[in-house]
Amino acid sequence: MTDIDIAQKVKANHIKKIAEKLDIKEAHLEYYGNEKAKLPLDLIDEEKVDHSNLILVTAITPTPAGEGKTTTSIGLNDGLNHIGKKSVVVLREPSLGPVFGMKGGATGGGWSQVIPMVDINLHFTGDFHAIAMANNLLAALIDNNIQNRSKNLGIDPRTVIWKRCMDMNDRSLRNIVSSLGGKAGGIPSETGFNITAASEIMAILCLCKNLENLQEMCCNIYIGDTFEGKAVYAKDLNASGAMAVLLKDAIKPNLVQTLEGNPAIIHGGPFANIAQGTNSIIATKMGMSLGDYVVTEAGFAADLGAEKFLNIKCRKANLSPKAVVIVATIRALKYHGGLPLDRLTEEDLEALEKGIPNLERHIESIQSFGLPIVVSINAFKSDTEAEKNLIYVYCKKIGVPVALSYGWAEGGKGCIELAEKVVAAAQTCESKFIPTYELEDSSLTKIEKICKGIYGANNVVLTDKAKKQLNKFEGLGYGKLPICMAKTQKSLSDNEKLLGRPRNFDIHIREFEIAAGAGFIIPIAGNILRMPGLPLTPSSEKIKIDGEGTISGLF
After folding, report:
1. Which tens digits make up the pLDDT trace of 314-326?
2. Catalytic residue at 309?
3. For the chain, percent of residues with pLDDT exceeding 70
4. pLDDT over 70 at 1, yes or no
5. pLDDT of 529 over the 90 cut
6. Strand pairing of 193-195 and 254-258?
């Protein structure tokens, strides 16, 4: 049975019924059809936030075999509701880039999914469109000011770092020349596109407190310099008001449901390999205001999503998880142990044992934050009893609880053991997380603490270009900002070919970018790009729609 078959067997509740589970009055709902709605920000209750249990779901280093972090998050939420806990799952919105590229849909799998899947995976409530338009409005205003002879700020086009964005993988737009066509076309300049998930506007939306704060953060976006070397910001172009207006609805979280009719809030969608990788602060606090437990995930593995969730998002929002779930699969661990993709369904205890150090590294990383951990093994039919036992023995040896998760096959019932162990772990949490670095540390020290303490690197090596950029950003007063690493998700190192737990490696910082409005510095390591490309065979090739409007191939 496919994901779409499962979804069609389930009759979705009217979103009003989901709201009733959370004690939300109908008057507070802004309907987008019968199965989704926007939630107003005044539902956030900081006192309730302080008493809610935030559960972070992260994972081992991802592989082509897949780990099922979103599936586990949804299954865990349903499992918590099964054991009598008032739980809400809070997730990121999918980007069209991966949907039509390599990854496909991002709404979970099997019986652990959020619905309406097609809407969520496609345009949903228009949040990504609004973010792209706000981003591109600023780009247009910059070019217009450069072209304007009477009111220009003297912006040097060669220094402009602000790029346009679109929600699609399109490598041909990474580096382009714009404003051709003679005098009427503007001043030709070198520029490019980022994917919307990597836009600073996405980061701002996910880190702001409210519309007023969003507008203020947009004011502080650094865009380039004048010919005299003076920094220019979005506020100098009077851009932030119009940008905020474009985002007035996008700032509101989206309420949907799981296949089992439990509440799900989906909002924001930054990638974790090139941005902060977590849903919005507003959505997380909304969930914590409405539920006793909130299950949320951070993109990719613990070295990227979880690190940024804690050091950037939680620091900004004054939040701290009560427990962290690290998702792994036996087949993915065997891949990290050197077994080829076409043999992952075979029992191979030797390969599994060789792959466990990857899980070990991520456990150590989360332990450095001082938070309780539960390992969740996302189970498959091909997993043998001997392989499961090996994981159990390892986790018992290091004193970390472990549970098998059957969310894909059984939904919430298959995650009851995981839910019970997560509740038990959360009850042991006695203090807030310990940050990896202090904001008063130098930028280079922060980077070194992440690379050595979280990745296991020996050293950090900066190119001459990176050194020059970092000196400039620190000279502008940004030295006390947190760090948002841009690095491959496929390895703990900056080399995607180094699987398992690499040792004796350095992290090479190619260049820096600044997100002054969002409030962090972005070191770009290795060959990571902020505009991905499509794979040789994109997922889009499988997607079809028939005369009745039924979509296939999206899941």
Report:
1. 999 999 999 999 9
2. no
3. 98
4. no
5. no
6. unpaired
Q: What is the pLDDT of residue 264?
A: 98
Give yes or no: 11 in active site.
no
Angle of the 200-207 helix axis to the 127-147 helix axis, nearest 10: 130
Q: Examine the pLDDT at 480 and tell me if it is beyond 60.
A: yes
**For residue 5, what pLDDT is reported?**
66
DSSP 8-class letter at 439: T
Q: Are strands 459-462 and 402-405 parallel, antiparallel or unpaired?
A: unpaired
How buried is residue 546: exposed, middle or buried, by Cβ count under 10 Å (0-12/13-18/19+)? Answer: exposed
**Of 128, 300, 309, 433, which one is the catalytic site residue?**
300
- Tokens 């919105």, located at residue: 93
Euclidean distance between the first and final Cα of the chain, in Å?
12
pLDDT digits (tens, 9 = 90+) for 256-270: 999 999 999 999 999
Question: Which pLDDT value is given to residue 525?
Answer: 96
Active site residue 331: no
Please name the amino acid found at residue 294.
V
Task: Report the C-alpha gap between 379 and 329 in whole angstroms.
Answer: 7
Out of 69, 331, 446, 490, the active site residue is 69
Partners of 222 in the beta sheet? 233
User: Angle at Cα 27 formed by Cα 24 and Cα 33, nearest 5°?
Assistant: 90
Residue 522 makes CB contacts below 8 A (sequence gap 6+) with 483, 484, 485, 486, 512, 513, 514, 515
Is-catalytic flag, 380?
yes
Higher pLDDT, 34 or 552: 34
CA gap 372, 108 in Å, rounded: 25
Polymer length in residues for the chain: 555
**How far is 144 from 161, CA to CA, in rounded Å?**
15
Residues 6 or more apart in contact with residue 42 via CB below 8 angstroms: none
The bridge status of strand 373-378 relative to strand 402-405 is parallel
Query: pTM for this one?
Result: 0.95
What tokens were used for 55? 């559960």
- Dihedral Cα 525, 432, 199, 460, nearest 10 deg: -10
Q: Of these residues, 380, 413, 445, 510, which one is catalytic?
A: 380
Cβ neighbours around 23 below 10 Å, total? 9
| Contact in structure between 134 and 234 (CB atoms under 8 Å) | no
Residue holding tokens 């972005």? 522
CB-based contact 407:71 (threshold 8 Å): yes
